[in-house]
What we know:
Distance between the termini: 124 Å
Radius of gyration: 51 Å
Number of helices: 58
Shape: elongated
Structural class: alpha+beta
Largest sheet: 7 strands, antiparallel
Number of strands: 42
Strand content: 5-15%
Amino acid sequence: MTRLADYFVLVGYDVDKRGSSDGQGRILQRFPEKDWEDNPFPQGIELFCQPSGWQLFTERQPPTFFVAVLTDINSERHYCACFTFWEAVEDSQPQKSLSGEDDEDSGVIQPAQMFAPKSLVLVSQLDHTEVFRNCLGLIYTVHLEGLKVPLETLIGNLLTCFIPIAGGSQMYDSTVCSFNLVPQNLACDWLLGCFQPGLDEKEESLRTITLGAGDRQVIQTPINDSLPVSGCSVALLFRQLGIINVLYLFCAALTEHKILFLSSSYQRLSDACRALLAIMFPLKYCFTYIPILPGKLLEVLCTPTPFIIGVSSFFRSETQELLDVIIADLDGGTVTIPECIHISLLPDPLLHQTQTVLSMILDPELEVADHAFPPSAMQPSSLKIQDKEIRAVFLWLFAQLFQGHRWCLHVIRIHPEPVIRFHKAAFLGQRALTEDDFLMKVLDGMAFSGFVSERGPSYRTIDLFDELIATEVERIRLEEGNPHKVMKHVKQLAEQLFKNENPYPTVAMHKVQRPTEGSHLRLHQTTFPHLDEVTVQLFIDHAAAKQKNEIPAVKSEKKCMVPSGPPPDTIIDSNVLANSARRLEVVRNCITYIFENKTVEAKKLLPAVLRALKGRAARQCLTQELNLHVQQNRAVLDDQQFDYIIRMLNCALQDCSHMDEHGIAAALLPLVTAFCRKLGAGVTQFAYSCVQDHSVWTNMQFWEAMFYSDVQNHIRALYLDGNENEKHSQEHESVPEDKSALEIASEQWRQWPMLSKDKQQELIQKEESTVFSQAIHYANRMSYLLLPLDTSKNRLLRSAGLGDFESVSNSYVTNSIAGSMAESYDTESGFEDAESSDVANSVVRFINRFVDKVCTESGVTSEHLKAVHLMIPDIVQMHIETLDAVHRESKRLPAIQKPKLLRPALLVGEELVMEGLRVYLISDGRDEATGGVMGGPPLLPAEGAIFLTTYRLIFRGTPTDPLVGEKVVIRSFPIASLTKEKKISVSVQMDQFIQEGLQLRSCTFQLMKIAFDEEVASDLAEVFKKHLHKLRYPQHVNGTFAFTVGQSFKLVVEHKHKEKNQSLKTLSKNFVKNAKRTMSRQHVTRKKYTPPTWENRSSLQSEVDEDDISVSEEVDQSSLTLSSTIKSSDRQTMSNVVERACCRDYQRLGLGTLSNSLTRSKHEPFRISTINRMYAVCRSYPGLLIVPQSIPDSTIQRISRCYRQNRFPVVCWRNSRTKAVLLRSAGLHGKGVVGFFKSPNAPTAGPSQADSTSLEQEKYLQAIINSMPSYSDAGGRNTLSGFTSAHMSSSDSSDKQRQPKIGALMKQVMGSKEELPGTFSRGGKWGSIRGSGLMSSYSPDIGTRLAGKDTSSPQTNGGPSEAHFVQQQRAYLYIIGDKSQLKGTKQDPLQQWEVVPIEVFDLRHVKTSFKKLMKACIPSSTSTDPNMTYYRCLEESDWLCLIHKVLQVSVLVVGLLDSGSSVMVSLEDGWDISTQVVSLVQLLSDPYYRTMDGFRLLVEKEWLSFGHRFSHRGAQTLASQSSGFTPVFLQFLDCVHQIHLQFPMEFEFSQYYLKFLAYHYVSNRFRTFLLDSDYERIELGVMYEEKGERKSQQVYKSVWDYIDRLNKKTPIFFNYMFAPEDGEVLKPYSFISNLKVWDFYTNETLSEGPSYDWELVHGRQEQMDESDRQDTSAPKSQRKIIWPCYDNRSKVEPDAITKLFQEMQSLEMELGQVSEKWKDMWDKIKATQRTESKLESRHSLSSSLLMSSNLSHHRRSQGMYVKETRVGSSLSLSMDSESSVTATPSSGMGRGQQSTSTLYSQFQTSESENRSFEGILYKKGALLKPWKPRWFVLDKTKHQLRYYDARQDKDCKGVIDLAEVESVIQGTPTMGAPKNIDEKAFFDLKTTKRFYNFCAQDSQNAQLWMDSIQSCLSDA
């Protein structure tokens, strides 16, 4: 029984404080005046009566009612029912007690009458809103209507009304009490009678309350008070906000977010808050709960804790600034969730089901809305019923969420108070919801811990939720997918909820008087009277006295044992995590083999077992099997058994999360302290020392759950053993018949009140000592698993590397994880505090924390707790001493099975970023390493470690196949070349279990598929990936290895005086260009240039100043000046610029002068312009440019705007013979195309800027044409109009002879309507450059001067047929442009330049092609698909097609230049394809660029200075990551490689040189290929260095310096076959059939990794050689086995010349001589050979074996030769570049000198033939012809007998095919035979065609010839 109302309070407006800014309320009267002992008076009621503030109104407001909730310090809620009405406050009567206010001083005119609020407040612990409304309304009605009932009576009756808290409808009938009717002397007795309960049952069930004013009310208390009472509030909330919004609020409340309701109605705020709490049942909200918050307390909203608060909409603006509060607007129906808040929603199937059922309740018509004949009556239930249905849905929802939760409760203490803990991890694991964010947060929340405390005990009264969990779970599971069945269940639950709230729904006898309508507006109303405190107190005192005398009415609680419901295992679908029975069988068999010592069988099964242990069922099976063996006393193992068991334990543990949701770690904990092995006398190593490296052991929650589980088992055993009659009392293990701990606890709680005090005390002590002993046991257990085996190292989990320590178990190495829990450790950085570096201290602290927590919760006495704390340091110390002995013995174990990690050799300046991670290198699609088609041993998979350095990613290890032997496998690539990283799952049969894999692809054509070993933690793998990504994509180019390499080394700067004529070696180590160079070639004439002084440059400067046109439309002028780098004077800058590669090359070519005025020298057609010295015109061009002498700089600025990126045409090379020039530029802007090529005679609308620019462009081109001698010779004038047809006819006859084939080539490049005979023009991907577009879109004039009619004479280089020219005159300038850019342009027949539109490929095409090429050359996996073969993939990549196109265009341009026409390459932006073409043209045309110095100069000039975007195309930084890798430079190198293959004697450098550049241009080891232009290099300060700075001897910044240094040491970059022809122009075949796939893409050397970091490979080789030399005792076989893809064949099996060099070196070393430099030696031999060749006859061949040994190739190494009979020639094979070719001009040739490209094809050197036998024989001629001596050659290879006029002759006079020979017989002399020769010297040869007569020198010689021919015949 409890009071209906605790306090009645009268609150009014505080008139005394009326003048202040905010009005205030004050309590006028309260009853009772003294606080109740059990219920103190709540403070601050006056604030809650007017939440929006106390204020006066000019009009009287209608009365209001709402219920506010106040929470006291004990978390008890008080319901304050506030009834407010308004009373007049008169200004004219300040003396009156209630309206005393003085406004006379204020200047504001107040209205005559104001109305102040007054509140009647009822404070109660019960929430009966309607009863309170009726009672306060009745008091107000009695006052207003002036009824004859004293207000004191009503209030006295109200405060003395007692009702039960629960138990159904209790109606208390009190006779009407009124002082008017009762004599004063009988008043007390009368009052006593009012409260006497009736004894009749029917009367009891229908009691009512009355306040004595003729009223009557029924109070229905709920049957079960644990269920909340909601009325209609839940249904209203859903109507106001909608389903989704309320579900969001529901989840937010459960996951502890802040929720704020807004409404203009206070009562709605209360209802909404009540509703939210109601749907959270059975969880109780335990944070701040204020349904109505007064405005004065709004700062409460800034509290950091969660809350549910309601605020009037009046304060909406104040709530806008709350960033972490979810705001629900009840009036607007919206819920606003801030961006920073993430609300975890219900798990998915549940969420959807809940929404569906709620929708069926709130909108039943939705389901049938589409029906043609919807049912007639589909109305939703009434609001009260709907309210209960919604609540039933949430009950059903919680039953699903919490099903099986009682099986995860741990009973820790039964007496004196129950202590119960929930095993969260086990619950989530059994429900398979470990990943569910919502449930995790709910289980961690305060509400759930309250739920466990309240509902955990198993002996208590049960309610609807307990019944639902116990009996209905199975039904819920079966009905899950059927919404109608769910709905039926929900309606049943709703009925129970409704009945609980309304036990007698039919009883509604409310009779309460209300005031008449509008009565509150009456003009004359009396103020609420002052009540008589004595009278009211009399009522209260009488009631208290009577209550004291009565026996307290105690409601009997029906306590019983709470059923637990079905266990969670039966709920979960068994297929979810089930493993096949076969796998479990494998696990069992393997364990059996281990314990039976069948090692070989166990080893076979182990990999399968380790894979199977990924599954939960297999892990559980493992724990059960091992447990059985422990019980059978088989825990002491030998080394091999111990090793296998440890590996299985580690494998099982590594997949457990830190929570151990499946209880695997919990089950293994007893086992790891049982399994052991004997190490020595009295030393035993337990398994726990080898399984420490798992996060679960560092998780405090795991240890707590384990501890509580064990305590529960012991408590259960305590009570089972205590009962002698209990069956199975001696067994501690659970058997199904046994009672669970909860059942035992329930029985104990039931018996507890009946036990004696002594017995109770005894049980309490027993339980407490049980917990205490377990605490000590766990302190031991924890020290076992937290202390590392080697405690001296003090390693922390995060700072220790994996792989730098010895094994403790022959297989698995553990880390100390104790450090990771140390509170004072700086765990972020991994460094230890100086004071607490001892592992023991950290472990002690961790155990202390654990013990503190569990003992406090379990009620251990403080004495016992202190005792445990004192023991812990001793326990840890004892264990450390034990471990020291174990550690000492474990060091004596035999060598571990896992291979030792081999550390890689590093470059100077290269540092390890991460220690090696143990991994497996898995084989990819290349089958050479696996012993595939080519045979050889399976080198892969290999076991080793992956090392991440600042420069490379290196794998170093050994093959897993034991038959391969001790071979080291190395695979590495530079980090900067990484193009793709991909996670893979590896399923390869191997000895170890694999965790996860990575596939890393590099653009150096390398692929690493690695699988991390089991010992590599997944977080370490993540760290590895993060480091890799950070190194691959630095923020800025400064972060690349080339820049960071030297930082740890101090560079010593020495000043060195330079000689004036120092040989010019570019120190372009990316800091430098400061030395001048004298060219070594005599034919180059150069002048010494002195830069002009800029002070005297007046006329040039004035032009620049006058030019007011902006330089570029894209870039702002102000941003074009160098910001900080060019700080030196202009003179210094210019001298640096002059030293650049461009300028040196211009000087070599004799191009241009540095003129400082406009008066140009007449004889110099070109000049070096300095307009771009500050990179203001074009940022991507060099500072000095070659332009026509006649063009001023101001014109250049204007012209540059017409070209993309401002890259206007500049000269980059000049043909020394024809003086034709090669120009490069970008393509034109779209708007400039038409203006550029429009006819000069076309009428113009008037002078405009566009026209003038166009005219200037034409002048520019004309100036280039004027520079050509052929144009000047033709008598042309420098104007366009002077170009007449007469000039067309004049031509140099020699040029005519030099210009064959170009027309057809042009036709092929451009594409034409008719196919050309002889053109390799197959359709499809392997076709020519020609696109599918026809010429129709162009003017027929375009290219007609080049593409004429075809003739059938074949062309030398495999191109199309030779063409005769339609017109006599070719164009003087050809512009190679992009077809798509030039559409619609017309060619003017009078112009002397001609546009050649070609189709160029897109860079995206290059990128895609390269990706496909990589996949073809290094496939990630072997494919059985016939469409995925190597050649098919290669074809689909289109790579060779792109090479073909580039070569084809280049050959065309070479031909044009060679024929005397200038060419301008004007494609794309001028820095990709243009650069490729221009570079190749120069390489083909000028032999200088085919030397090492020249090639370097070419790359520096055309690629670096002219701004190829190396950084951007190579995706070198984070900014360019998205653009991807585009190998434009690699494509160029591939083209050079193709030319090198075809002309092996024309290049000074070797193929290795090209591969070296291809590797290092992406490696970022050198700075050479970083950044996008000279401008950027100067900006960064890497272009020049101060004079005198000496380069570091160890770290090379420039690839060229490195090559120079290496070239001095070794001839690796030198081509021994280098024997160039002077002035040779190369024209390679470009058809795809002639192209070869570069072996750079396919070759690899696993023995040493890439050979391009020479120190690494060379250094390692020297070490190996030394080790070989030391071991000289045993005789060694000379035989070497060379394995494919493993050995470096060129090193193991060097070519003849290299071998000779090596022998010379070793001989010099043996003789103790100083080793001579190879180049000096080579030059000496060359000189000797040259002398020898001069002594011999002009037509004799050099007999020097050394020189000819490697020259056995043809001059052009192609299998196809076209014989041209017009020219006969012989070749001297001297290596001297001065050697000349004797040409015999024939009638068709106009010049004396013949290009050797034709000579390549017309003869074969005699060395190249396979001469089996040769000599002089006399041969009888045909009929009537005499005998003649001939030089005969028998060629076994070609199966021929050839004869020549003389030995030296190259032209074969005849061939006898041995296949046609029928017999060789002894002959007889015939007429005309030689005299004086033995008859036996004659022999005859009979063929199918004729009879040959031969005569040898003697009979012996004849016999030799016959035998040789006979042997040839028999071999065939």
